[in-house]
Amino acid sequence: MKPAARDWLLLCALHGVASMLLWWSSKGLLDALTWQSMDWQARPWTVWTTAWVHMNPPHLVGNQLVLGALAATAWVVHPPRLCTLAWLLAWPLTTITLLWWPQIGYAVGLSGVLHAGAMVLAVHLLFKRMSVPKARRWGGLLALALLTKLLLEQGWSQPVVWDPGNEMSVVRAAHLAGGVWGLLLGLFTVWLGGGWRLGPRGASSPARA
Predict the structure, then answer these.
(1) If one looks up domain 3-192 in CATH, what number appears?
(2) What are the phi and psi torsion angles at 158 (to 5°)?
(3) With contact defined as beta carbons under 8 Å apart, do 116 and 83 qualify?
(4) Does pTM top 0.85 for this prediction?
(5) What are phi and psi of 36, to 5 degrees?
(6) Half-sphere exposure of residue 141, counting CA atoms within 13 Å on the CB side?
(7) Are 95 and 50 in contact (CB under 8 A)?
(8) What's residue 38's pLDDT?
(9) First CA to last CA across the chain, in angstroms?
(10) Can you tell me whether residue 41 is helix, strand or coil?
(11) Angle separating helix axes 57-77 and 111-126, nearest 10 degrees
């Protein structure tokens, strides 16, 4: 396992373990770690920690499964360190961007961060920053799936919807914010790693750490 890929897996482990530990925590601690739009500046740590707070078992299990998929993907494609940096930066920015929608009083869960991570991987695969066969094809498929999901959700006009199956509100705006930041920071870190040149079809650019 390359050291750069370990960075991504360590971030996955942090999200997974912290989410599980907080699931068994007291309500008082959860409230202290939950981002709220009205007072987040007095509790700035919540732009990070709110991602680890989950509403109910389906919410937690669903996010853990997607997190596991991101970790498994990283095990195969070996994302470079700049890829992990992009995902790390998108983490708090996804939360802060929710201020754009005044109707969002609070938000919890990993879903926005997971959308960001998936989009970062898609961008780096598209620009062949990982030495894997058909990297551009896989990156394009992943990006298309994410963009289609975001377009169908229409998080810009329907930032919060009620999910009767799981009996909780879903902050679609967090998915949108995560996807946008994943795209922007993915492109930025691709540029930092050597520019936006796609390279010849069928050849893999060297992975950058």
Answers:
(1) 1.20.1540.10
(2) -125, 70
(3) no
(4) yes
(5) -130, 135
(6) 5
(7) yes
(8) 96
(9) 13
(10) helix
(11) 20
What pLDDT, in 10s, does the model give residues 117-132? 999 999 999 999 888 8
Token pair, residue 61, equals: 């299990």
CA nearest neighbour of 34 among 53, 15, 16, 60: 53
Return the bridge partners of 35, or none: 107
Residue with token string 């989950």: 54
Confidence band, pLDDT 50/70/90 cuts, at residue 5: confident
Residue with tokens 């739009």: 37
Residue in the structure block whose two tokens are 């989009």: 119
Q: Which burial class, exposed, middle or buried, applies to 32 when counting CB atoms under 10 A from its CB (0-12, 13-18, 19+)?
A: middle
Name the nearest CA neighbour of 175 among 49, 90, 52. Answer: 90
User: What is the C-alpha separation between 158 and 155, in angstroms, rounded?
Assistant: 5
Question: Tokens representing 165?
Answer: 């199956």
Taken as a whole, the chain contains a residue count of 209
Q: How far apart are CA 24 and CA 142, in angstroms?
A: 33
